[in-house]
Design brief:
This protein is mostly helical. It has nine helices and no strands.
Length: 192
């Protein structure tokens, strides 16, 4: 009986080894058949990782460099060469620097014109673009509900209640300013 058991275990081991060799041969055939494609995919993956790594390092360097230039400009705000470097490296930080500079001298029309020109640059962050437009007192798409609210307040001060009602009604229901608009309607005697 034990000889029979030994033969069965040897037979199952041979079957397992036979299946393993069969799978190895199948995978070897697959690799031989598609080795060009596998090699090409491997090269593409390595290139993609190398390019991604390089791009991230360049972006990191540019951020550090633009931050260094910005901090130098905060120390020496009249240095034109640093200002030009910042304008080339990071237009967004340049715009922020100009906003800070305008706050110190609100009558400088040259700075306001530069800021207005920058607001139309395609490389500038859209949120910053809207902030610049709002800072300059122009209408911005992002702050349109806020602009409507301010305009309605001016109309209410001039007792133009119906026109203010129309503007306040145009503010979206999901806007954070809707409650303020309702309060203005209520306190000015405008029915809701």
């Amino acid at each position: 009986m034990s000889l029979k058991d030994n033969l069965k275990s040897i037979k199952t081991e041979l079957n397992a080894e036979e299946k393993m060799i069969e799978n190895f041969i199948k995978s070897e055939r697959f690799i031989k058949k598609y080795k060009k494609y596998i090699f090409l995919i491997a090269i593409i993956a390595v290139l993609w990782f190398a390019i991604s790594f390089g791009i991230s390092k360049v972006e990191e360097y540019n951020k550090k460099e633009s931050n260094r230039i910005y901090t130098q400009l905060l120390k020496y705000p009249n240095d034109e060469s640093l200002l030009n470097q910042l304008k080339e490296k990071n237009i967004n930080l340049y715009a922020i620097f100009l906003i800070n500079k305008i706050q110190n001298d609100e009558n400088d029309t040259n700075l306001k014109n530069q800021l207005k020109t920058i607001s139309f640059n395609s490389k500038i962050n859209p949120l910053l673009q809207n902030i610049i437009l709002a800072f300059l007192g122009e209408k911005s798409i992002f702050l349109k509900d806020y602009d409507k609210l301010l305009e309605a307040c001016k109309l209410l001060e001039g007792n133009k209640i119906e026109q203010a009602n129309v503007l306040l009604s145009q503010i979206n229901e999901n806007s954070g300013l809707k409650q303020i608009a309702k309060n203005l309607k209520h306190y000015q005697g405008i029915s809701q």
